[in-house]
Amino acid sequence: MPILHSIIHRLDKPDGETPARLVPSREALPPSGALDDLLAGLNDAYHGKTKTWGRFGEDADAAFPEALARYLDDALDFATLTRELAERLVPLVDDHLPLGGHLLMVDHRQGEARYLILALLHHRQGFGIGDDLSVVPSRQLNLAQMPLAARLDIGQWQGGSPSHPYLSWTRDRGGKKLAEAFAEVLGAREQVDAPQETRTLLKAFSDYVEAEDLPEEASREKTETLIDYASDQASRGEPITLEELSELVDEQQPRAFYEHIRNSDYGLAPEIPPDKRTLNQFKRFTGRAGGVSISFDSHLLGAAVEYDADQDRLIIKKVPRALRDQLTGGRD
């Protein structure tokens, strides 16, 4: 994960009464193993955050995309680019956060891709062991607390992909106004709702499995394939590519799932951002007793399937076609 440029500015606000102020760094950080490890930890922590996905707005009256383009054209140095952004973040800290923090910005490569990641980091008080084996206080960066953070896929932005949501930024629970103000500073426009898009994809997959009338074992294998792929993409901060997913789900018919999505009214783009929390909640309920075997996706509970706890009954509202044909002897 080669680091091209990195820097830390301080947005100083010691308490809720003191106005925030910028304490800028004049030059980029030198390379170090500690910085590499921090970037790896930052990426991991960021991928686990609730995020909004989108792109730079074409009509946005924001200075950051223009300044970023100048930086990439070598017309602006990294220290100036980041300092100007930090200056525009000071009012956000004043209006929405009780404390300031350190703004870390890193321009780096990951494989063939190039990313810019930024995060406002806070410290937490911890403990360490001194040379004399005594307990000593130790301040540490708290990567779990990240009120302002964003990640840009520079290559996708420069390539002008019409569907790829190449920009994401944090949206902490209860921090809607802060997220909106942050997006305005970045010049960003929300493109997709990641949790909703992920739920729609899982619904499309469940419909596909039902339509294909797959055996339970095959259904389970395909479900695991989808979750493994989507979770891996989420961990790397990459979108789910529907064609690539379709090839993984069914190697014998690599376009079957993709065509199922395209031919139905799901409204999914060719690439969608995965939401890790939604993926973690997706599972199948399975049970077997007395010659009866039942299995269904968790999101169907309360919709196509109902459980009456008082009577201990499972009510199936939509009987699979193949089962219905067996029950009716093929009669309509």
From TrEMBL:
The keyword Cell membrane does not apply. Coiled coil: none annotated. It is found in: Cytoplasm, Nucleoid. Keywords: Cytoplasm. Belongs to the YejK family. This is Nucleoid-associated protein. It comes from Halomonas koreensis. The lineage of its organism: Bacteria, Pseudomonadati, Pseudomonadota, Gammaproteobacteria, Oceanospirillales.
